[in-house]
Design goal:
alpha/beta, three-stranded antiparallel beta sheet, six-stranded mixed beta sheet, globular, 17 helices
């Protein structure tokens, strides 16, 4: 595992010419309370899980030994003592950073049976190679038996997506589909799948990384459309049981990060306060990042690049220590994985700044609960409990946004808003539900840039400090 740390570093954050805003402590008070509450809940969850694991272990041991009543009472005393010790030790574990758990690892989940879902895990290059070779051997045996060959692949259809409320994320169900080379309708897709398996094996053997576009251009005549080779990549990941990044195929750089964070990327030291106005491109190779350090109080997750650039140029992260991230719209895998990684390690809250429309909220939902297309790897791609800081429908009146900046929602916008109101992740959040109701009722939407009608720096000098100080999320 890469080395990481949530400690601040004097050499990392040496920015003498910059200083905190005069009202920084006042503004950050609510965020600090939010962070403390977040850590407390994480500790409580860890203690609860430890207690359940201890209880399960004690019960299993008692059953295996065929213990009588007297010995069982002794086991109960021992369990009580162990639970007491766990209550102390897990606080330390939670505070020092813990890996995100898969559904099968969380004993308290009752809404879904772990045997009913498919979740992938981090694998070494050698393990992934062995997985691909195992699939190839199965194909070989079928061909030698003159049966053609059939691939069994977990279904990623919408009907096979399961929402787990305890973890607030989407996971993949256990339904499987087959892809037969002897079936006329499936023969081409089977050929594409075996070709992708071959290419991935070659890439992994060389220990290099390629982009999805690179993969497509290795056999354009067969793939025809990149969407096809991209989809098969996800199929292969579920077949092997690894994350898509373990296949060493990545998307091109899209996300950006700037602010109070540093890390080592493949041996190079990166300080995101000294990467120019535009910040640092989020690397597609998240596994090459280590020694993460930060003194930030929170992460500001921004939908639009234009709003991100305003905050970067104004050095908002120095006035109110934070990390600013954008994926320039719909989030890519690398940005989602990066956000999940740093928030898990640094244990700081995430505040979202998106357009006041249904699509802004959908973007937040992808960061929080995952996408249906990659639900098999939601554990490493999701960041729970992101706060919707703005721009919210209620802000339009609260901040007296001019009428000319309030845009009429289209019929499709309204339909999308109503569909969101039926989603479980929205229904479990009364505040978000109320905001959506306002949006659909007024049939008005607005972009973050609409705040510039009050002044180009209004968003960094007035809007964000006020919202954060009031804990208005």
């Amino acid at each position: 595992m890469p080395k990481s740390s949530s400690k601040s570093s004097s050499k990392v954050m040496d920015n003498a010419k910059y200083k905190l805003a005069d009202n920084a402590n006042e503004v950050l008070s609510a965020v600090r309370s939010l962070r403390n509450d977040m850590i407390r809940k994480a500790e409580e969850a860890e203690r609860h899980e430890s207690n359940l694991e201890l209880a399960a272990s004690a019960s299993a041991a008692a059953s295996a030994a065929g213990s009588d009543d007297a010995s069982y009472n002794d086991d109960e005393d021992a369990l009580s003592s162990a639970v007491g010790a766990a209550a102390t030790s897990t606080v330390v574990a939670a505070a020092s950073g813990n890996k995100k758990r898969r559904v099968a690892e969380v004993k308290s989940i009752k809404s879904v049976d772990s045997s009913e879902i498919v979740e992938v895990a981090e694998m070494s290059t050698t393990e992934v190679l062995e997985g691909i070779e195992s699939v190839a051997v199965k194909i070989m045996h079928q061909v030698l038996a003159k049966q053609g060959f059939t691939l069994e692949i977990p279904s990623r259809a919408a009907s096979n997506q399961i929402y787990v409320p305890e973890l607030d994320r989407i996971v993949l169900g256990k339904k499987r589909g087959s892809r037969s080379f002897l079936n006329v309708k499936e023969s081409r897709k089977s050929a594409v799948t075996t070709r992708v398996l071959q290419l991935l094996h070659s890439v992994l053997m060389k220990r290099i990384h390629i982009t999805k576009r690179d993969l497509f251009y290795t056999d354009v005549k067969l793939f025809v459309d990149q969407a096809e080779s991209d989809g098969v990549l996800d199929d292969v990941a579920t077949m092997v049981g690894c994350t898509r990044s373990n296949l060493h195929v990545v998307a091109s750089d899209k996300g950006l990060v700037v602010g109070r964070i540093s890390f080592v990327e493949d041996g190079d030291f990166i300080d995101c306060t000294k990467m120019g106005v535009g910040g640092k491109a989020i690397p597609p190779y998240i596994d090459k990042i280590e020694d993460v350090r930060s003194d930030a109080e929170f992460v500001l997750l921004v939908e639009k690049e234009a709003a991100y650039m305003r905050m970067a140029e104004d050095r908002f992260y120095h006035k109110y220590p934070c990390i600013i991230i954008t994926a320039k719209g719909q989030p890519d895998v690398a940005t989602r994985m990066f956000l999940s990684r740093i928030t898990s390690e640094l244990k700081i809250p995430v505040l979202g700044l998106v357009d006041s429309d249904p699509y802004g909220l959908k973007i937040l939902s992808v960061y929080m609960s995952g996408s249906k297309n990659m639900s098999y790897d939601s554990a490493s791609l999701t960041t729970p409990d992101i706060k919707w800081l703005g721009l919210r429908p209620s802000d339009l009146n609260k901040y007296d946004l001019p009428d000319q900046c309030r845009l009429d929602m289209t019929e499709n916008d309204i339909k999308t808003g109503k569909e969101l109101m039926q989603e479980e992740f929205i229904q479990k959040n009364p505040k978000w539900m109320k905001e959506l109701q306002i949006m659909v009722k007024t049939k008005k939407k607005a972009e973050i840039q609409a705040l510039s009608s009050f002044g180009f720096q209004y968003v960094t000098e007035v809007y964000l400090p006020r919202k954060i100080a009031q804990g208005d999320w």
